[in-house]
Design brief:
Layout (H helix, E strand, L loop, with lengths): L1 E6 L2 E10 L2 E6 L24 E2 L6 E2 L6 E3 L9 E2 L1 E4 L2 E4 L2 E2 L1
Parallel strand pairs: 1-10
Antiparallel strand pairs: 1-2, 2-3, 3-7, 4-5, 5-6, 8-9
Length: 97
Amino acid sequence: MRFEIKCHGRPEPAFAVRFEGEARAFLNRCGHLPQELDWQEGEFFDDSRLYLICATHGALYHPGSGTCVGGRCAGRGLIPLPVVERGGRVYVMEEHE
């Protein structure tokens, strides 16, 4: 799911996915260049559904941690956002530093 979050007072694109039953959220920004990841709006997983993939560069990220696992991300991972799940709803901290 795509959404916006305030980061340093500016709206920034972000997204949340469910991986191994847990909700995870990240800024929607490739570690290689500040490009959004989704290859179609709201589609972040590669064909295997095991990794998040940057549609522009093909960089692969672990969906549980955002760690770079291959491609042009040069070891730079995704920026995770704190997530809390209560009563079937997912909440992300509004202001991210």
